[in-house]
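Hello forum,

I keep getting stuck at the same step: I have a sequence, I want structure tokens, and every attempt I make locally crashes halfway through. Rather than fight my setup again tonight, could one of you with a working pipeline run this one for me? It's a single chain of 140 residues.
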Amino acid sequence: MPQETTALTKTTQHEALAPADAARLGAALAESPDATVFVNGTAVRLPPAATDAVLDLLGRLAGGEAVVLSTADRWLNTSQAARLAGVSNTYMRNLTDAGTIAVEYRGSHRRIRPADVAAWVAARDAARENRAPGPGEAPA
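Reply #2:
Ran it on my machine without issues. Output:
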């Protein structure tokens, strides 16, 4: 199962099933939409969101399709994160260097989660609202 991690996603490619296996799976799916799975010998009934995802995957495999799974995590490069935060690229790099915004490296490239940028922006804005006005500044 080839796996690839890119700057923005993690993906795994699964080849199409052999026609006989796809037909058996298709017949089983046609009988029932049940998505109970066995994990380490224990039966686990999947919650609705997981059921939908698993049935979609199995339906595609039963249809003879190859499938690529990808994470929903989106990663930003430094420039994208800086635009999202409304700061310069240099300032964003400084924030990641200081550990103020979490960063993950893919090789020498920084990757930042949008949620981490949004949390920093919210904290910055809250701090601005709570500070006393400086000389020559109007009260908030």
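The two ends are 57 Å apart (CA to CA). If your local run keeps crashing, start a new thread with the error log.
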